[in-house]
Each structure stands twice: as C-alpha cells, then as structure tokens.
Design goal:
The complex is a heterodimer of chains A (173) and B (106). Chain A has 173 residues and is mainly α. Chain A has 6 helices and no strands. Among the domains of chain A are: 80 residues, Up-down Bundle (Four Helix Bundle (Hemerythrin (Met), subunit A)), CATH 1.20.120; 40 residues. Chain B has a single domain, classed as Helix Hairpins, CATH 1.10.287. The chains are: A mainly alpha (173), B mainly alpha (106).
C-alpha cells in the first residue's frame, strides 16, 4: 500500500468520524470544532486530488470565515445544553431519522452496483486544479456566473443587515 | 500525489461522499438545535463538493472545480443570511430550538 492510499483511508475515516461527532455531540461548540476537523480532512482530499486552489479556498472560506461566524453566533447566543430543554425529541423520532438516513445511503450504494468501473484515460491532464488553469476557465467560460455571484453577495449582505437590525422599541439581548 | 487517481477507484469517492451526505441528512432529521441543523447542511454541501472535485480530477475537466468554487460562494451567502435569521429567532423566542417554533402554524 502506497503513501497516498494510506492517506486516503486515514482522511476518509477522520472525516466520517468527525462528521458523526458533529451530529452526536451534545455541546454545540464541540460540534463546530468537529466540523472544522471535517473541513481539514476534506482539504487533505482536495490536495490528494491535485486541486490545490480549492484546498486553500476551502481552508480560508470554510474553516476561516464560516466556522468563525458559527462560533461567534454560538457564543453570542449563550446556549444551554440541548438536553435541558423541555421539548426534546423522543427516542422514536431519533431512531426513525437514523433508519431513514441509513436507507437513503443504502439506496445510493445499491445504485452503484449497476455501474461499470470507470477506466481512467492514460492521457489525462493533471494540472487542472492549479490557479493558472482554473483562472483561465473561470474568466473565459464562467464570466457571467462569476459576476452574478457578486450580486448574490451584495444581496446577502444587505439581507443579513436588514434581518439583524434592531427596530425601535425592541428589547436588547 | 498524482498516482491517487490510478490507485483509488472513483467508486470509493462516490461512497465517501454518499456517507458524508447521509450523515448530514441524519443530523437534519434528529437534531432540534437550529445551529446544528445548519452545520449539517454545510456537511451536505461539502459532500457534494468532494464528489465534484473527484469527478473533475478523474475526467481531466476543470469545469467541476469552478462549480465547487460557486458552491462555496453560495454557501457563504447562505450562512450569512441563515445565521441572521437564527439570531432573530433567538431574539423573539429566547431559544434556537426548532421544536418551539410551532406557533408559525397558526
């Protein structure tokens, strides 16, 4: 077994274990920290697949920006642990959720059986994930979606400020 | 790190992405904390991302990686608006438990 195979299995198990801990951790802060671990494992996968640009963007955008936003909101809201709330989901609801999710996984895996194994072409390009190549594709073929994303960000920014704004007479935190 | 494409079959990546996606689905179904439901949505988006990148690397087509870039942008916008909504919910109901939002029915 070569190094890259070992790395693949290690990162996969790390990612799946951390994803399970995100769901089953009692404390929301632990969930956020495990989610950061998932993102780092996925970044390792991106580097293994030679997508360096997206690996760096994943670290900066997800682990850097989005997760800090989550941590900020959790500490801002001063949450109690979930077990203390009166309206806890019953054990039957949880079992039903796990069973339906597992059946969904079963359907997806079962549909893979009818696939023929994919043969990788020998003359495949290896440098597609580098910044130079990706920038050319982004600004030649995807220029209009790229500009639309900027408008989306503007709308999201305005929407977040409008939602978060305190109206007159409303109580503070 | 180039030889990963020849050593690991593409199906392994599909299975990994499916498992991560299903863990996200289970989390949305069984948790009541709105913040954790949000994190599980992020988990599902990332499962799709790794599928996109694996297909794009195995086929030598850069469009898949550009799509991942757009998914990340949309996810960032979604989180900003969603967390603003959660903060508003907390201000009005003093909790982020989605089970206590049943007054929206009436």
């Amino acid at each position: 077994m070569s190094l890259s195979e070992n790395l693949f299995y290690f990162l996969s198990f790390l990612g799946i274990f951390s994803a399970l801990m995100v769901v089953f951790a009692k404390n929301p802060i632990h969930s956020v920290l495990y989610l950061i671990l998932v993102f780092f494992a996925l970044t390792g996968h991106y580097i293994l697949l030679n997508a360096q640009f997206l690996a760096i963007v994943n670290i900066i955008v997800y682990a850097g920006a989005i997760m800090v936003l989550f941590l900020f909101v959790i500490m801002f809201l001063n949450l109690k642990k979930e077990g203390n709330t009166s309206a806890n989901k019953s054990i039957f609801m949880k079992i039903a959720g796990v069973v339906s999710g597992g059946l969904f996984l079963l359907v997806i895996i079962a549909s893979l059986k009818s696939l023929e194994p994919y043969q990788v072409k020998s003359d495949i390009k290896m440098d597609i994930g580098l910044v130079e190549n990706l920038g050319k594709v982004l600004y030649n073929d995807f220029l209009l979606p790229f500009e639309l994303v900027s408008i989306l960000f503007l709308a999201a920014m305005v929407g977040a400020i409008m939602l978060g704004k305190r109206e007159t007479g409303e109580r503070n935190f | 790190m180039v030889e990963i494409i020849t050593k690991i079959p593409l199906e392994y990546y599909i299975i990994l992405a499916s498992v991560l996606f299903c863990i996200g689905v289970i989390g949305v179904l069984i948790r009541k904390n709105a913040l954790i439901i949000f994190m599980c949505i992020e988990l599902m988006l990332n499962a799709v991302n790794i599928l996109f990148i694996a297909f794009s690397a195995y086929r030598g087509d850069a469009s898949g990686q550009v799509f991942v870039f757009f998914i990340m942008a949309v996810a960032a916008a979604e989180v900003a608006v969603g967390l603003a909504i959660i903060v508003m919910i907390y201000r009005n109901t003093r909790s982020v438990d989605v089970g206590e939002l049943n007054k929206i029915r009436y």
